[in-house]
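Example record

The entry below shows one chain as it appears in the dataset: sequence first, then structure tokens.
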Amino acid sequence: MTKKEIVRTISEEIGLTQLQTKDIVQNTLDAIVDTLVRDKRIELRNFGVFEVKRRAPRKARNPRTSEKVFVPAKYVVTFKPGKEMEERVRELERQDAAAQQELAEQQGNDGNPSSPPVAQTLGSATSYDASAPES
């Protein structure tokens, strides 16, 4: 989903124009970034915590040339989701697992999505005669 789609959705929900909603969304995002730069941390209840952390310098390897390179220290933004977000994502996983199980049962296989249904594997019974000699 893009910022434009978020603006459209919120605009329709609260009855403001997309231009007004875009300003609100952009100001919110700017405030988050400004707070991170200034305070190095912002906690949004029921959403999560953004935090600026310093990543230590390290040695790495260029995968193309296998040459060792030095990666300097840098600041990175981390995000830890809140309880509500974690629970909603877990619910997604449960729904996905249930849908996979239902699909496996409908196909009549062992639940392995890579194995085709038994009927597709064996073909029709009339086209195969086990007692016929091989040509």
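Notes for this example: Confidence is low (pLDDT under 50) at residues 118-132. The first helix runs from residue 3 to 14.
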